[in-house]
Amino acid sequence: MSDTPKDLHVPKGLEDVVVGTSSITFLDGLKGRMLYKGYDAVAMAGQVSFEEIVYLLWEGDLPTRAQLQPFSKSLADNRALPAEVLAVMEKFPKHCHPMDVLREGVTLLAMVASDAHDGSQKDNREKALRLVARMGTFAAAWDRIRKGLPVIPPDPTLSHSANFIYMVTGKKPDPLSVEAMDMYLSLLADHDLNASTFTARVIISTLSDMHSAIAGALGALKGPLHGGANEKAMEMFLEIGDPAQVDSWVEKALQEKRKIMGFGHRVYKVEDPRSVPLRAMAHRLSVEKGDTRWYNISIKVAEAVQRHKNIYTNVDFYSASVLYLLGIPIDLFTTVFAAGRVAGWCAHVFEQLADNRLIRPRTDYTGPTDRVFKPLAQR
Ligand code: ACO
Predict the structure, then answer these.
(1) Is the minimum distance from the CB of 13 to ligand 1 under 6 angstroms?
(2) Concatenated DSSP letters of 165-223
(3) Which of 51, 81, 147, 323 can pair with 328 through a Cys bridge, CB separation 3.0 to 4.6 Å?
């Protein structure tokens, strides 16, 4: 009965289905490689600032010093949230999850922005800049508001990463903490057509607006199978509590067929390449901050899972202890992921609009086709 081709077989979850072209991020799931605009993203991690990576994803090449300075300044100048938005956030119930606040916050930004519905390329760039600049401010401000503390205004003299840690913790961070946050945000900035990026592209393909695309992407990122896994991984480490408990905890979890958060990946059939620098950073931070418990537990969990199943750690596994050691509250972890990924979402919105066609696939209909209608009185 359907007019879709009968031999059309689309794998569940669209696994390995190629639905378009992109020149932003290249992934090799068998070799564990990840390139931003042709540069090895993992090799760059720890040597570049997040601002440089945003510039690379949007402009196509790494900035010179002369290009980076005004770009970083524009980001720093746009960090503060409009007073109307902060006033509404003050009224949110204090139990709201930070990802819900972030999603609603982006929607509020659209409502107070006079250019929210202007879809010109120039305006989209400006909106993207403001969204990247403010994503961390939302998370930090909400953490203070819900605790009844005054919001810490952004400090434009600090880098993007340093300022974010400062707004959450109230303390100017040490150089290793800034390096760790730059590494984290840079490695998370883009990742091909993951669920949230696909969502952003679908939304913008209708010629909706930038804020709607980013709000939709935030909804997709929140789920524990995607960006929400970093929070769940840290909760797991806390539940295990002691390296001596790891083996029995993992055995029981696998016997109960529970998913171990921070393991497995749709694309990578080997270790997620982002795990490697994040594991090293988790170790450095643990030593520097004198708290190696979470690192030791995570290493033992990785070994124990590997003994039972052929699955590897993904980006969320070691980033959990990195963010924890930076003093980020656990339920803020996914908002920090969003603060990095928003750069990629915006890059994909630009790319989609540059050669747009409505994204509108089909389903293979499997329901009935010949039912006879009876009016309500006869049912
Ligand atoms: N723990 C235990 N077993 C797992 C895990 C895991 N974390 N991940 C995959 N497997 C097993 C599955 O049980 C399945 O085994 P089976 O064939 O014996 O039934 C096999 O590996 C394939 O798993 P699928 O869930 O079918 O793989 P899919 O590609 O659909 O899912 C996903 C990928 C969602 C990431 C999955 O690995 C998972 O749920 N991981 C835990 C959540 C997580 O860490 N998400 C973050 C992903 S990275 C990111 O989005 C930033």
Answers:
(1) yes
(2) HHHHHSSPPPHHHHHHHHHHHHHHS--SS-HHHHHHHHHHHTT--HHHHHHHHHHHHTS
(3) 323
Q: Which residue from 265, 268, 315 has its CB within 8 A of the most atoms of ligand 1, so it is best to mutate?
A: 265
Residue 28 and residue 6: Cα distance in Å, rounded?
A: 31
Q: Which of 211, 265, 283, 348 is catalytic?
A: 265
Nearest CA to 227 among 338, 324, 327? 338
Rounded distance from Cα 260 to ligand 1 centre (Å):
8
- Is there a catalytic annotation at residue 265? yes
Q: For 229-325, CATH number?
A: 1.10.230.10
Indicate the domain borders of the chain: 25-227+334-354, 229-325
- From first to last of its 379 residues, the chain has per-residue pLDDT tens of 556 665 667 899 999 999 999 999 999 999 999 999 999 999 999 999 999 999 999 999 999 999 999 999 999 999 999 999 999 999 999 999 999 999 999 999 999 987 767 778 888 999 999 999 999 999 999 999 999 999 999 999 999 999 999 999 999 999 999 999 999 999 999 999 999 999 999 999 999 999 999 999 999 999 999 999 999 999 999 999 999 999 999 999 999 999 999 999 999 999 999 999 999 999 999 999 999 999 999 999 999 999 999 999 999 999 999 999 999 999 999 999 999 999 999 999 999 999 999 999 998 889 999 999 999 999 9
* CATH classification (class only), 25-227+334-354: mainly alpha
Q: Which amino acid is residue 108, in one-letter code?
A: L
* Tokens of residue 26, six digits: 């290249």
What is the token pair recorded at 246? 């790891």
pTM: 0.95
Distance 328 CA to ligand 1 centre (A): 26
Residue nearest atom 26 in ligand 1 by C-alpha distance = 266
Which atom in ligand 1 lies closest to the alpha carbon of residue 188?
51
- Tell me if residue 28 is catalytic: no
